[in-house]
Design brief:
Length: 192
């Protein structure tokens, strides 16, 4: 008699509870920011007891770190001409930041919370640095410097446009931002 095909285990109830908490946390952090969101409001949005949130995530800081698992979705730029990489990166980041309240909440909170700042640093180190490393044959330190300088532009732009909402920056059309900031990013990518 043939053996039945193996089946994947049924999801555990705890997995569903964690997913529900994370979804509610993302909504609350996006709507109220890190300071405004509370374990109680997150639990209420998830329809569970606050003690369950604490059981799965320990505290608000750890919950935020888990909810802020973000993929920058940096594409493979291998088909983009070298002279256009700076503008391609800026265009991608503008598209990625536009309307992503979790990214904006993370940026807003990073200025006052060390754990969130560390998460944002890790995000750029693990997702941006490998993209830069593919572009040249440089020591790791040089690659990290380039990635860091690019991060100053991307994070500064996002902070001014989406958090501070500086009128001159908010008023710029994306094409103008791509053109102006793209030239700076291009120099960070390839200038010696």
């Amino acid at each position: 008699m043939p053996k039945p095909a193996p089946t994947s285990p049924a999801p555990r109830r705890s997995d569903a509870t964690k997913a529900t908490i994370l979804a509610a946390a993302r909504e609350q952090f996006a709507a109220s920011g890190y300071q405004g969101a509370t374990i109680r409001t997150i639990a209420a949005a998830a329809g569970i007891d606050p003690a369950m949130v604490m059981r799965y995530f320990g505290n608000k800081e750890q919950l935020f770190a888990a909810a802020a698992e973000i993929d920058l979705r940096i594409p493979d730029f291998s088909d983009v001409p070298r002279r256009a990489l700076g503008t391609a990166l800026v265009e991608h980041f503008l598209d990625r930041w536009e309307g992503d309240e979790t990214l904006i909440a993370m940026l807003r909170t990073a200025a006052t919370n060390e754990a969130v700042a560390a998460r944002l640093q890790q995000l750029f180190a693990t997702q941006m640095a490998p993209v830069i490393a593919k572009l040249g044959d440089e020591p790791r330190a040089a690659t990290l410097t380039r990635a860091g300088l690019i991060a100053t532009q991307m994070l500064g732009l996002a902070f001014c446009r989406y958090v501070l909402k500086l009128p001159p920056v908010v008023g710029l059309k994306p094409a103008e931002i791509v053109k102006r900031v793209g030239a700076t990013v291009q120099s960070y990518l390839f200038d010696p």
